[in-house]
Amino acid sequence: MRExxxxxxxxxxxxxxxxxxxxxxxxxxxxxxxSVDWDAADIGARYVPPPAAGADPGAWRRGDEVFVPCRDSxxxxxAVISLGEPVSGRRSSDDELDFLVAVGRHAALALEQAHRTxxxxxxxxxxxxxxxxxxxxAGKSSIDSVLRAVCGGVRRALGFRKVLxxxxxxxxxxxxxxATAGWPGSEAPSWDVPVxxxxxxLDPEFEIGxxxxxxxxxxxxxxxxxxxxxxxxxxxxxxxxxxxxxxRAALRPGRARARPHLGRRARRPVxxxxxxxxxxALFAGQATTAIVSARQLEQLRALADxxxxxxLPNRRAFVRVLENEFTRARRYGHPLALVLGxxxxxxxxxxxxxxxxxxxxxxxxxxxLRAGLRETDGAxxxxxxxxxxxxxxxxxxxxxxxxxxxxxRFRAGAPEPFIAEVHMSCGFATLRGGPADADALIQxxxxxxxxxxxxxxxxx
Length: 460
Description:
The strands form four sheets. The chain has a seven-stranded antiparallel beta sheet with strand order 7-6-5-13-12-9-8. Strands 1-2-3-4 form a four-stranded antiparallel beta sheet, with helices on one face. It contains 13 helices and 17 strands. It is an alpha+beta fold. Mean pLDDT is 81; it is low at 228-246, 252-258 and 264-270.
């Protein structure tokens, strides 16, 4: 019997066959031999003992079955006790079945308590892990790092195979994946979904502990499609998972929102407990605060690195980017050019047209740099009338041609006649000759710039 039954699995329809009301006797289910066509039922492995001698009508028949369900305090079946081959050789009396039902109740109580103890232990461990992650969220310096920490923390603490956070673009009003955990890199989800479509999923009917636990069919009915690809087939075989569920906890950091999508539970194909969902909702609130803080920090960092007049990155950003590009170019042997320029006689422009006129001239120079450089290049305002361009993968000859193109574009696109008469003295330097560091490259470009300025003044 052990060889035939242990380790076998059965479809859910098994319960409907063996716990049929026709066979109910005082809480137990007695199925007489021959009353069920087991082959037609096709519910999985079954053990039938060898035939016994005798024709006593009260004797146990080889095809007889007795099943006793063990139900928890809410009436849900936790286990089913299956009995066969009584030592007496006779079918169970009502008193014996009553006794078996009592045993089943005690077994159910023990199982329920064991489940609660296990769940409490997992919940405590999950909270400890989530709190540990939460304590570190405030120290994250970017939204991306916060989202990655949230995905990893939820996945490890709450036992989901896959966790996805989507962010709302406040400009387009669409929702798209921003961070994931559990997806292979090549299979990472990608989509743009209108926010209104997601709002239809946040139905109070499915709210539990601050989250929304929605069966897949209900989600499809509201969204009109599978938002996340189902796990139906893998390598041609059906995946052994529970019913499709989506757990979503809405995060609302200002105008943008994040929505963690949690895939099926990794340990067991069961619905997450209320305690787990409440922990998730609490963690979502803490993550919201961290996202808001990270966004504000990113905005402050952008302001700290940006010139307010022209909108170009400032000297602080210039030094950081140049150090990185210099190191990268030296490591991989790539060319790199640095262009430095300033506006000739800028004081005279201010004296003639006033400071507003000088500001317009500087903004025109910045616009020309933005329009004339490649996407891989960087333009910076590093001083009053000084500008810089960092040109990766650019030789000296290419840098010289780029400077000439920028000058032509500037004059052709000048917004005012006097700006078309503005001249800049530009110089450049490359890695040729082996400057020791980024500062040496700046010094070389400065020497080239002043040489160009002297040549321009001599030509006048």
